[in-house]
Amino acid sequence: MDFGFTPEEESFRQEVRQFLRAEWRGESLFQDTPEWFEAAQELEKKLARRGWLTMAWPQEYGGRGASQVAQTIFREEAVSANAPTGGQGPRMVGPCLIVHGTEEQRRAFLPPIARAEVFWCQGFSEPESGSDLASLQTRAVRDGDDYVINGVKVWTSQAQQSDWIHVLARTDPTASKHRGISYFLVDMKTPGISVKPITQMTGRSGFNMTFFDNVRVPRGNMMGPENRGWYVATTLLDFERSGVQYAAVGRKAVERLVAYARETRADGGSLWQDLRVRCALADLLVNVEVSRLLAYRVAWMQGQGLVPNKEASISKVFGSEMLQRVAGVGINLLGLRGQLTAEEGLAPFGGRIEDLYLQAVSATIAAGTSEVQRNIIAMRGLGLPRG
Fold this sequence. Notes:
Number of domains: 3
Distance between the termini: 33 Å
Order of helices and strands: HHHHHEEEEEEEEHHHHHH
CATH architecture of the largest domain: Up-down Bundle
Structural class: alpha+beta
CATH superfamily of the largest domain: Butyryl-CoA Dehydrogenase, subunit A, domain 3
Number of helices: 11
CATH topology of the largest domain: Butyryl-CoA Dehydrogenase, subunit A, domain 3
Helix content: 40-55%
Shape: globular
Strand order of the largest sheet: 1-4-5-8
Radius of gyration: 21 Å
Oligomer: single chain
């Protein structure tokens, strides 16, 4: 791949930065708060009018036919500014529908996503089926032209604010675990769906448990063939794992730590004078740049019509573990002040490093654990045998 950007791509990057500086009012907010989501909805309408949320989609479905690299540039700049990128609809559900959906489904679901009219959440993990997702037990039973879904999903990000949820459910309990699973698109207003927020270590509730009690879903809302939903899901997971968000978050954190290290202390010195501090921060910047290039490699491959399966897993495992390294160095560099939360008022950078430290572990679990990613890399990348 070409590691440089074209003049047009660099110009677009500057255009996105200028737009966000002028229009975005939620940079200081935490993303799993109602206040951030309210501000995000307002901005997403403006982003949609510019066509930026889905710019790499085909024009007939609300896109601009732009390159995947341009789409990644937008997402990198938006994440760096703590701004929204449209959520799971533009990044995951929409691209998966373009690959696996029927034409009727594409016409029904893609334009509202492109216009930022609907917000999606994901119903994959269950209380007993996380890393081993194929062992899920939520059931979908055919009843005429509908399927009736019963079960529980967990870690459903922003379910309390979502309009639709994409769900994996078992439709053939006698089949082997990777078969017999189907993929459904479900309106969150359907009777029988209830949401229970989960309070996290941060004190906020971005995650939820989602309950399905005799939820009726039209047969036409199944994406892909019956009992073949696992293979649809692997396509979607490649889109989820290939993001540049890890590098964008990591770079912002390292920039804050560099600024902190350069501050002059009361004794006239600074942490920057310590060679060990400078070397640790330099090492983190190298890690961030590697993560960034891995993510752009995935975008470049998608633009070439290739399927970045193992490459997406490489990007995900390196990027999420890089965030843990950044958070670990950061919390130690800040010392006792690094343990203060945003609510306590004296936390450096409004508690951002402390918050990253608490959330970084979950980044190596969400979208498939690091162990799962290494298995994918070993089997599909290196050709090693299973078991």
